[in-house]
Amino acid sequence: MPQILVVYYSLNGNTRQVAEAIAAAHDAALELIQDTVNRDTGLGRPRSAVEGLLGLRSSITPPKHDPAEYDLVVVGTPVWAARLSSPVRAYLSQQRAALKRVAFFCTQGGIGGKWALQSMAKISGQRPVARLIISARHLNTPVAGEKVAQFVSEIGMD
Prior knowledge:
Blueprint: E1 4-8, H1 14-24, E2 29-32, H2 44-54, E3 72-80, E4 83-84, H3 86-95, E5 102-108, H4 113-124, E6 131-135, H5 142-154
Helix pairs in contact: 3-4
């Protein structure tokens, strides 16, 4: 059985919800990317949008799990201003050499999921074995469940 790590960043809980569903489908380790910036302030969300638009990296704490010890690392991000979130950009940049195989997913309130996933592939230097985009309006609906099940099947976690 392959060793799988699900790594994600979540600001409002949507990406966490999907990450937990993916990890629950198999005995996968789960890790939250810890941002050192407090984004739960009046300026936190606008700052997040600017960082996304400019392609900046956030300061994150070192991960608890070494991705090199896993056969597959599933990475999840929210979409900020139609772009990849800065904490996930930082994680992928820092862990690029340790990643053997990857799969990517994102949650979005509007648009940009496709661009976020493309950025993840470019930064990691890898073609993902599977991709998933979940819109916030589909969370907690059968649509999200079906999409997650399909994604889990594509990465061989079923």
